[in-house]
Amino acid sequence: MRPRILSGFRMMVVISAVAVSGGATVSSQAPVNGAPCPAEPALFQPCALARARTFAPPRTPDGRPDLQGIWRGVASGTENIEDHPKTGDDDGGKSLLVDPPDGKVPYQAWAAAQPPVNRKTYVEPNVPCFPSGVPRSLYVPTQIEILQSADHVLILLERAHTYRIIPIGTSAHVDSKISLWQGDSRGHWENNTLVVDVTNQNGRAWFDQAGNFYSAAAHMIERFTLIDADTIHYQVTIDDPGVYTRAWTMAFPLTRNKQPGFRLLEEACHEGERNTQPLLDLGYRMYPGITGRGAR
Prior knowledge:
Layout: H1 8-19, E1 29-32, E2 35-37, H2 45-52, E3 69-72, E4 97-99, H3 109-112, H4 114-121, E5 122-123, E6 144-148, E7 152-157, E8 162-167, E9 184-190, E10 193-199, E11 219-228, E12 231-239, E13 248-256, H5 269-272, H6 276-281, E14 285-286
Parallel strand pairs: 5-14
Antiparallel strand pairs: 1-2, 3-6, 3-13, 4-13, 6-7, 7-8, 9-10, 10-11, 11-12, 12-13
């Protein structure tokens, strides 16, 4: 069994979760095709898309939907993006996958055996305060601030002072020889949805603590859609032909933090991190990333 070490990050998560008003899921909404809209993330997508068709979002001065504010994703995803029960190590949660319908990552046979190896062999990349990557940065238990201009969207992430700068328009991705923890993002608007194309991964981030992974070849398409004043429907489709049998999709809500006067706090993650060395002393190794079939 993996040793349980309570990190400063974990304690910050507990404090942060208590401080946020509104929680990470949305309450039941109007029915879709006669069925009520539940709050569980895995069942959130059809209701969200129906609401998006009728919601008139607030606009920025340049006429685009105004996504600005402080948000929070579905924290259980960072434990495991698939269904997982409450245990001594996890709080439990529903799968974030909406496609395939079974909520399981469609790994190729070799890749299906990799997550348990990751968990037993490597230091979870969030422990040494590496960036959480795309899309995990949006559901790691912390706060997210979105700022906009006419030609950029900036996502500030409270955890470890990470961020994403997303140019809006037709500019090309950076050279394919460049690999990045957060990938390289290029955005454009499709009606009221911000669509972000993400390439140039370094393949060293995990989706979750369970060791679910992608390679440096992963290509992701994100979609951010306001469905009411306080909820963004987030969807990401991941295509990585060397790892999965097909492209697959996660979807979940980003919920606005409405606490008056709230500001992102400094999280001295690197400065206060004390868990990596004990894990290395126990024989764990730093995760090298995946290229081809297996770890580098």
